[in-house]
User: What shape does this take?
Amino acid sequence: MNTFFGYFIWGLILAAPLWWLWWRFRLGSLLWRVWSLLRRRSVQLPPQLEGLVILGKRQGGRGRKA
Assistant: This one.
């Protein structure tokens, strides 16, 4: 039982500062952004549509958002 409490206390001592660093530097959102950028794929358009798209910007008025 003493061994369990020893490891438990050391786990808390190590986990608390690591959790604080994770929270302070918002590493969760940073890793999520990096992961989404790495997974981003380029879109291949058919040749007849390539002339309609200019640098990926929408052309026209206010449309409905998906």
